[in-house]
Design brief:
By secondary structure, this protein is an alpha/beta fold. It is 60% helix and 9% strand. It is elongated, with a radius of gyration of 40 Å. The N and C termini lie far apart (110 Å).
Amino acid sequence: MEEILANLCGTSPEDPLPVWVHGSVGHCFNQLILNVFPHMILALVSACYLGTPRSHVPGHPHRPGWKCRIVASFILTGLPILDIAAAIFQQELGTLYLEVLANGIAMLAWLTHSLALLMLYRSTYGSSRGPAAMVFLVLLPVPALIITLVWYCQNGLAWPHLHAAHICRLSFLCLQLVSLLIYVIGYITPVASRQDFCSINDSWQRKPLITESGIPAPHWQGVAEDGESWLSCFSYAWMNPLMKRGYQWMLNRPQDVYLLPRRLQVARVRDHFYSCWQEKAALSQEEEDTVSSTHPIVTEGDESGEASPSSRSPYDTQKGVQLLSVLHAAFGLRYYSLGLLKLSGSLLGFSGPLLLNLLVSFMESNQEPLSHGVLYALGLFAGSFLGALLRNQFSYEVNKVMLTVRAAVISAIYRKALRVSGSSLARFTIGEIVNFMSTDTDRLVNFCVSFHEVWSLPFQFAITLYLLYQQVGVAFLGGLALALLLVPVNKVIANRIMENNKEMLKHKDTRVKLMTEFLCGMRVIKFYTWERHFSARINACRARELQRLRTIKYLDAMCVYLWAALPVVVSIVIFITYVLLGHQLTATKVFTALALVGMLILPLNNFPWVLNGILEAKVSLDRIQRFLELSDQDLDAYYTTDGPTDPSSALEMHRSSFSWSLDSTRQHLSRGTLQIFIQELAVAKGALVGVVGKVGCGKSSLLAAITGELNRLGGQVYVWDLEQGFGLATQEPWIQFTSVRENILFGRDFDARLYQEVLEACALSDDLSTLPSGDQTEVGENGVTLSGGQKARIALARAVYQEKEIYILDDPLAAVDADVANHLMQKCILGVLKHKTRILCTHRTEFLEKADTLLLMDNGRIVKTGTPSEILPLVEATPKVNEENKRRKNKASRNVSDWWLSHWISSLSQKANTSMRPLSASFPSPQLLLFSLAGLVSRVQLVGIAPSLPNSTLDVNFYLMVYGSIAGANSIFTILRAFLFAYGTIRAATVIHNRLLQRVMKATVTFFDVTPTGRILNRFSSDLYCVDDSLPFILNIFLANVFGLLGMMVMITYGLPWIGLVLLPLAALYFSIQRYYRRTSRELKRLYSLTLSPIYTHFSETLTGLSTIRATRATDRFEAENQLRLEQNQRCLFASNTAMQWLDIRLQMIGVAVVTAIAGIAIIQHQRQLGNPGLVGLSLSYALSVTNLLSALISSFTQTETMMVSVERAEEYTSDIPIEPQEQLIQVAPDWPSQGHVEFQQVVLAYRPGLPNALDGVTFTIYSGEKVGIVGRTGSGKSTIFLALFRMLELRGGRILLDNVDTRSVGLESLRSKLAIIPQDPFLFSGTIRENLDPQGQHTDADLYQVLDQCHLQEVITQMGGLDCELGERGKSLSVGQRQLVCLARALLTQAKVLCIDEATASVDQKTDQLLQQTIRQRFADKTVLTIAHRLNTILDSDRVLVMHGGKVAELDSPVVLSKREDSLFQRLLTRGQQ
């Protein structure tokens, strides 16, 4: 090597490459290092841009400077050729070969650069300055040119006779500098106008991203990665425009992100996955032909093994198909082949330690030739460079596989949910099913990472052991035994952590479920002043959760401590054993062994967590598999294909029996054990059929049986024109989170005439005029911003707009007043729908006189069929119903111990001059380093522990003692830090939750109306989880990384001070890269979160409205919508993942540069006899891990930043949300109000600032013990009177007196606890009947049974199992009418003087209603009762009637007087009701 250099440079072999000659930089050093290297880098980077695709945007604007740069670049290509020619003529100057080499490389570099500039000029870069890196690299050769110029001037011009060749070369040199100046001027030339600065993505603002058909628009700009050169792919140069947009704050919407590469697009992935599913299904069908007869899911097309996607789901076939085998078939080959990348990367990981070992031994010996040192340095460079590239590509490719698996599984779950039978679906709550799509899918996807770790970790372990054996022989067994001993200990701790984690998650689920109910039933809780009771329940759950968290955190701290101490102890044991066996320690041995011990601990430590990830994935896979195996709704088997017995029939049932559960003997939550049995039923085309019967007799179940939501146990069902589906309006209206218009259109095209007709028929025109944006108003989650009546009418309008032949209407009149009900009946049911077949279920029997037929139901059977005149007199009822282990450590003490070790080794090698060459030694690999970075291993301590054994025992003892003391101090600091951190975590978790809950408990009702429940719930679930667990974990790692990096910089600089020259520019580069990345990364993560919520919201919305979606045959459209939302989210996730790889490869290159620089400096120092092998070993062992540390630092900082958002969000709620006034101006008597005298004086109230007044100057007085009915159109302000009375909303003006006390001066709790209300929405909490009636446990069982009896519920409740029977989610074991009765029973228990009843019996049949009114009159004979009613007959016996109109009091008098007055509104309502 020395000879080659000496021949090339014309120097002596002793010093072939002199840096300094005669007071200036050596010519050879200048040409080879300062000229050749920069040109090589320029060539490589320019080559990355050769594949840049052209811009397809017509009239693409170009910056004028480009042409200057291209011309200058081509001139610079030609000048080196001319220089070579001149050098051949004039040979005195230097050596010809050196000039040819330098100029040849320069010429190639500039040629590559010129071509790259041409490509960039024609791409969308042409409208900007192009990559800034290019101009930076172009300037790198400038110092070499200037030094050469100075050299010429000193040497060449001193000659007596100047040759023409000398002058030519001097001119060429000047021309090169001038061309470079022109190049720079071209780069900085100003641009004409600001909008010329458009980037690769700017055309997206002008072009649609997704065309009408849902196919991505065919512009290359939008598509990631496709069509890029391999260099661009390796360096992620194609990401640069996106990174730039992020840096300029231009990533504001998901549309600003690249489209997915074709291979990852959701539609392609899904189709590929389904075709694999079909193949597997066909195979298992062939294998088990006999099985097909036993499965109820087989549909047409099974014989051929294929079916059209629209007619059936790919899961229809049978339960034999395993999800894992389909994923394996669909994505397996590509995924398994990535193992080769992983293997190569891992093997190259070992090259670092091995070459380091050779380099340190080279430094220890003075006999080895220089060429060996240079080869080791080059090997280090090549190994770390290739290893970085392969590991980076592996991560990137695995991320892509994870994306495809995620898309396939989410699509499969959504598709299954749309097709599964109602009874099967009822086994799961909505929350559980959404969990399959979120948590379970994520766990399953994470398996992709774990699987390759499972085989690679043992492989790394084995190689490390072998290398360790090579270093220290059998001495390694002592340390290994100790490390293995800790594994079971660690396993026990990990098991305990897992058990506690499971328990903690159970408590968390319970708490979140409670919280959900609490938020949904917020009004009820505030009406009844149950806030304290509920917050106590939630706090009790939280306390149990925190108890588990405390255990987890302390166990975790123990784990951290053990792993931090382990490397020190293991290395002490190994080195002591080695010394006792009579061997001598050297720098080579110590550093290599230390590195290997660190590498040994990584697999040991990671393995339990990897296995754990695989087990979690298995559990999630089984859960999803169970869901995918549910039986599908099979309409072909459910409905008969034979024609009807009577051609004029639209619907026929013969001897049909139905059940809510597959197994009719098994009691099911959803509707108790009710079975429906229909002997004969025929509905003629165009008929109006009414279904009547008492509460819980099976009316809604009959309608569900018609639409196919029940299980048919026998008999035949025929429906005319089945493909078209039904127009369905359910009893609890389902409203989507979108505008009113979108809710009504429901995917159909807008037809202005039909739309107007529907609005008119459903009495919505007036309501829309009061909404802020008319029919474009967003209605919020589940329609929270609408009244009950408005929701019911929008749901009805949606059904009518679909223009079906058969309409199934489940009590759409319950929630509206008599006037509107009459309008709906006349204009809609008997108007727009008059030629359709209508099946109407209602308790408002006064509207059924125009029906063609009535069905009277009881206990799941049709008791009698006849005309209205025959059936209506019989309608009476007695209610009787059915029912990464956290690996971190103290960095500072680690650095001290490393330094001590290095000092020790150096002093040893000076005393004992025996330099033994080990067989093969190895230095810390990147993995090891990564691991120590993450904070697990105190590698340095290891180093410190292992002193070499010098001839004097005293020395060994001295060094061992110092090292042991440092290690001991480190150990103490580590355990202190771990436990203090754990303690701090628990404190923070406790305080933040308490503050958050207290504030939300006191929030105003308006806050809950305008804030989606999901958003508030997010604070209590994901944000709190972050505060409890993720944030402390990542913050700990971040702090460890910060101190680790500082320590590392100090140690490297201490070992090799010259490295500072390299570190400073690299630090500046690192700083700019991380700033660039962090800004973009934050935006991409924000966009990912932003696009994730709509997927889950849409899914839970789909599950809630499943019956409507299926009845109207809209499943395909909903699937397409899900696909669109998923595609948006996947784009953001892909961009976010790739940005991380973009950063990673750049940091890896910085790491490679540091390692190479250290190796280079070490060799130079060795040549100058300045090198200290111990210090070089120390520096290099640190430098090898620098990349991972840099990368870990940025990612932990970014994650910490992201996680801190959760704390901000929680804090925002604890300080910013509006709360109800808490002050109490006067203390009222315990028996207040004793009279029940209510007076409103000029009351003005609006729901929110900016909205019109809901009450506008309302004045009236209600005397003690009076019974007053309140009537008026929907939205006239009836319910608002109650809200004002309970101070749910604060008045804008006027005042309300209760027994002559202004309600504003009374504390909220005192006021509300003295009033009783039966609210419009019958809200029940999951739990027992007892908890729902009397959550605070103030009443005896006898009291509870008495009120249940008075509400005609005792028999039902006894059948269900008494007061302690569970009601299910939101009381779903009871029908809507029965839920209203439970709410009435609640009110009967209170001893309040004032009772407010808001539409409490809308879903109850008339007979029961009469009995209830009688009960209320008896129980509240001496109390003041205010009743809002749409059934006017319920308030005809009131003392007075208050008629509201437009937020004002229109009339107030006795019903008799008002009904006789000609012009009275009440009289008009009455006559319409009687019509």
